[in-house]
Predict the 3D structure of the following.
Amino acid sequence: MLAALQQALAKAAACRIRLPVILQGDEKSLLAQAQHLLMALQPAHSWWLGANTPAQCQNIGQYKAHQLLGIECDCLIINAFSGFDADKVAASAGALTAGGLWLLLAPESLQWQQLANPAHHRLRSYPTPTDYPGYFIAFWLGQLHQANVLRGNATTLFNDLTWPKAEATSATLDVAMPYKTSEQATAVSAILNVVSGHRRRPLLLLADRGCGKSAALGIAAAHLALSGKKHILITAPAKAQAAVALAHFAQLTEHEASASSALRFVAVDELLASQPEAELLLIDEAAAIPTPLLQQLLNHYSRIVFASTEHGYEGTGRGFQLRFQPYLTKRCPNWRLLRLTQPIRYQAQDPLEQIIRSSFLLKQTDETAVTLTAESLELKHYHASDWLAEPKKLQQVFGLLSFAHYQTQVKDLAALLDNPALSVYTLEQDKQLLACALISQEGEIDDALSQAIYQGERRIQGHLLAQNLAFHLASPALATVKLARIMRIAVQPHLQRQQLGSQLLTRLEKPLQQQGYHYVGSSFAASADLVRFWQKAGFAAIRLGMQLDKASAEPSLVMLKALSAENVSKVQQLKLEFASRLYQELPDYPSNIASDLLLQLIQPTQHAMTPLTLTNLQLFSADQRPFELVISELLQWFNQYAVVLSKLQQQVFIAKLWQKQSWAVVCQRFSLSGKACAIKLMQQAIIQHIDSA
């Protein structure tokens, strides 16, 4: 085997591909063979995923998927006998360089798909048995069946690859050094233009793994340093993820002492805390940095380059595109987008990249345009066990969920197949997917466990709605009944704004009732538009999280709907209690929650205003009463007339009267010149509407 593998690796290097090899059989024999191959091949940078890590390999099991970005290796071995973590397998593959070995050690296929996968235990809802095998491995092996991969056992390689044609190298592409492709040269030019061009025109540099975006950052920084720039900063989720850029910079400036110190890595938290001077800020793997932090960096630095990948297998979902880019457009409408598509780390027809994209359903599918016919809309229900017979439908569902939601990752695909508590309702027309909802079966927790959750003594996997009801809302009895949680709901982009999401919510209620569900709920990053959507469907807000979501910069909101008439009063009670509690406790919540969201959630008690109250308000609006003497009157008036005020007026009243923020904070949040300006705005609001009071 060794000779055949060495020959194949040499050919892979010549073709600029990574060599995918799957060895199946006895665990002890395969581990021994892997050790033998490592000793013979002596790779410089070897990664190992799973148990029994050899001394010459670095185990990457402790890393999260997004922490593997921006790092390279030349040998990656996966020991699937100790578990197969789909998220990490997909993410780590992008780090392997051309000529490198990707080696999977696994049981024989029939045996493997019958075994429980301990790496996916965290994806299963309580009380799924630990020996539950799930369907992911069977599905993945089915996807892999036609893959272009070398297969073998502990002693023999059975078949050869279909080798792609060798691609032209940079030496034959007439690309000047140090560039590997013409696209990379264009990227460096665009980065330099961020410094020389107008302020507040950031560059967004997007690419698949291996297309040279990180190298472009380092090359551009070297150009700037050699031309006299002294203060260039680079940041990333971790310093290791900026290693490629730093290495290219160091190589190009090593003979120029005055330039070699111009580029400095600064961690994101330190950047925000100290805000050092920068002629250019480079942000590598930006999609793996929480959106709120990117927003703060954008607000402070006027010349920025955001470089990133967006694929779910990178561990970042689509949050960068769905959440950050709209904010970027709002703050810097003249920002520029540049995409790199020419691979550098390996060639375009690399078989490992094809395996990863196809087997983890990462290829984007183009949906056929559909003309809606209401009579032909069909509601369908899919369980984990159905996907083996419906792989194309699963591709459609996962593709739609990935497109529509900012945190969908490969582990979500694994959960669809390995968590028996998850199912999907779809709205289809002529077998075309129009919309889908991902449902989690929750609740039905016994009395003792629900009491332990209520008392804060226990937490269980996969019961977010039940635990919110038992612990945060002090209603442990509700955790004992059958609950459905809508984890995701998505509509095809070209069919949005046609009420399909609302139709799907309405149609799935009847089958949920028939299956014995008492309540249906959802938890999501709250925005005013989303709350309106759920309220229109009859859902009531019952809890707002006290921390902002790292990816969305919005608080999480739990909404609930009764599925039977006898439970409607309980939901109404929870709704009223929540609105009252939120009103009273709002100063303890994040200070920057959107005012239009708060106006939808809070329903303060309103009282008729007395003549004395109106007189005091008139005196305040005429500058004859200070703010401090009419706070209660202002609060009473605002609670009654908030909806008729302008957005800025609402924001100032809410920040000062509901959130009880200082004048300095209020003025800073809404770009007001000072306390007098804010008070003047309040006075104008009263003058405009006092006659109707």
